[in-house]
Write a structure and sequence with these properties.
alpha/beta; Aconitase, domain 4; seven-stranded mixed beta sheet; 8 helices; 31% helix; 16% strand
Length: 205
């Protein structure tokens, strides 16, 4: 997993609340087993008409926000079903972080396990970033996970809180497999003391 320490990037504003995972990545696109290839279907129902053509009216299709790596959205982001594909779609599209005043717990947990940062700021702070991104061309933010701070070059600065263990994993680029492999030596030693033959099927015949 790619470590997340300090990100400076273009900001895209999505001024909607209660954005659920079915809107982030609709169910008809969940047939893939890889984590990649979902980006083109991100917010599909909002970006495409019934004939499959882009409407050109959705904020992410505005050329001003091409290449954005930070999304600012309304409260209760990621609500709905527990699909991990929502995080995969956001990442595959190019985002590395979402800023909102609140997140669905399962979405935030899925994000952390995929190296994707959810930044919780107040409604006022989120609204201010939304305004700045909407009116200022090429508006950029710096998200500093090492110091738990969001800032721009125009005087905005805000602290955010994050679980210490989640922060450690993100800074170190550790997913569940990476955490397990930190104990590889102990696992190997244990397995050497317990040969596989000891775990053969002992059920009644």
């Amino acid at each position: 997993m790619k470590p997340f320490r300090v990100l400076r990037g273009l900001v895209a504003p999505l001024d909607r609340v209660n954005i659920d995972t079915d809107q982030i990545i609709p169910k008809q696109f969940l047939k893939r087993i890889e984590k990649t290839g979902f980006g083109e279907f991100l917010f599909y129902d909002w970006r495409f008409a019934a004939d499959g053509k882009k409407t050109g009216e959705f904020v992410l299709d505005d050329p001003r926000f091409t290449g954005a790596s930070i999304l600012v959205a309304g409260k209760n982001f990621g609500c709905g079903s527990s699909r991990e594909h929502a995080v995969w779609a956001l990442s595959d599209f190019g985002f590395r972080a979402v800023i909102s005043s609140s997140f669905a717990d399962i979405f935030a947990n899925n994000s952390a396990k995929n190296g994707f940062l959810t930044v919780n700021l107040s409604e006022e702070e989120t609204a201010e970033l939304m305004r700045q991104a909407s009116k200022i061309a090429a508006y950029e933010l710096t998200i500093d996970l090492e110091n738990c701070e969001v800032r721009d070059d125009r005087g905005f600065r805000a602290k955010f809180s994050i679980d210490k263990f989640v922060r450690h994993c993100l800074l170190s680029g550790l997913d569940d497999i990476g955490l397990t492999l930190q104990h590889e030596a102990e696992i190997t030693a244990y397995e050497s003391r317990h040969p596989a033959a000891e775990f053969r099927d002992q059920s009644p015949k």
